[in-house]
Amino acid sequence: MKLKTLVLGMAAALVSAGCATRDPMPFAAGVDCFYPACSVGVEIVDDGSGGRKLKLDGDGNIRMGTRHRLVAIVWKIRTPGYEFGWDSIRPHSGRLADGKPATNLGEWEQQILPHPYIYDTYSVTDRNSERTTLYYDITVYPSAGTAGAPISLSRTIANDAFQGREHGWMMMR
């Protein structure tokens, strides 16, 4: 009986050691993304002072799942009268006064592959091949018949790429 208990205990320890523990989310709210795709809803809402602002699922922050490579991130507008443009999702250049660090274009292009967009849907593929934090700007434009200026917001994509030993790869063989 003791041998059976010992063997079962060792098997449970090996299985749990092989499971990757997730790091805490690097932001207050966010969307967890796993292969093959995740979706981020985009709404245009009243900002309380007569203007408009963007409201995104998970506050627009995205955490890529460990070992989930080539994941599509899809932003979908839920509010009629607004649309995406060719530059609606781009690396944060630091031009907005929000205190976030900038992401250079080279770092962005190593991880993010753009897709063709349609008026209410914008998508990219995240390679998630390197553990890094990418800061991005999202801009939504009023469509024909809707008054107002474009609305922008800066948010974050946290790549949580497979990093070997610290994620238990030795146990997974």
Structure description:
It is a single chain. Residues 12-21 and 164-173 have low confidence and may be disordered. Strands 1, 4, 6, 7, 10 and 11 form a six-stranded mixed β-sheet that branches. This protein has a single domain (2-172), classed as Cupredoxins -  blue copper proteins (Immunoglobulin-like, Sandwich), CATH 2.60.40.420. The protein has two helices and eleven strands. By secondary structure, the protein is mainly β. β10 and β11 form a beta hairpin. The chain has helices at residues 2-18, 105-111; strands at residues 31-33, 37-46, 52-56, 62-64, 71-77, 82-83, 89-91, 112-114, 121-126, 132-142, 151-159.
Q: What fraction of the residues are assigned to beta strands by DSSP?
A: 35-45%
Which spans of ≥5 residues are poorly predicted at pLDDT below 50?
12-21, 164-173
Helix content: 10-25%
Number of helices: 2
CATH topology: Immunoglobulin-like
Question: Based on DSSP secondary structure assignment, what is the total number of beta strands?
Answer: 11
Task: Considering the chains and any ligands shown, give keywords for the structure.
single chain, 173 residues, mainly beta, Immunoglobulin-like, six-stranded mixed β-sheet, five-stranded mixed β-sheet, 2 helices, 11 strands, 14% helix, 36% strand, disordered C terminus
Summarize the model shown:
This protein is mostly beta strands and 173 residues long. The protein has helices spanning 2-18, 105-111; strands spanning 31-33, 37-46, 52-56, 62-64, 71-77, 82-83, 89-91, 112-114, 121-126, 132-142, 151-159. The longest helix has 17 residues, at 2-18.
